[in-house]
Amino acid sequence: MISCKKSDDVIRVGIRYCGGCNPTFDRVAALESLILALEGKVRTVDHREDSIQALLFLCGCPTACPAQESLPPELPFFVLRAQDDMQEALGWLRALLQERQNSCNSDQ
Q1: Could you tell me if residue 3 is inside a domain?
Q2: Where do the H-state alpha helices sit in 1-108?
Q3: What's the pLDDT at 10?
C-alpha cells in the first residue's frame, strides 16, 4: 500500500532507465507523456531515493535488463518495455493514485 502524507498530494515514483543499448522507442518521450497524462499527480525521482513509493523501469527493449536485478519486495513496480506498454503503464499509475486516495480518505 502507498503511504499517505497530508503534506504531499502526489506519489513519488522512482525511475530506472536501461542502458539504452538497443532502444526500440523513445523512453524519455514515453515518460514525459505519462507525466502529462497524470496532470502533476506523479513526481518522478531517481530510483535510489529512499522515499519512493513505486518503481517504473523504462527499458528500451523486451530484454529489460534493469528489471532483472533484485527488486525491493515492498515496492510496486512496472516494467515498460515497448511503446505498446504505454496504456498499461498509465493504468498502473492511475491505480496507484486511486489506492493512495482511498487510503488517505480512510485515514481521515
Answers
A1: no
A2: 27-37, 86-107
A3: 87
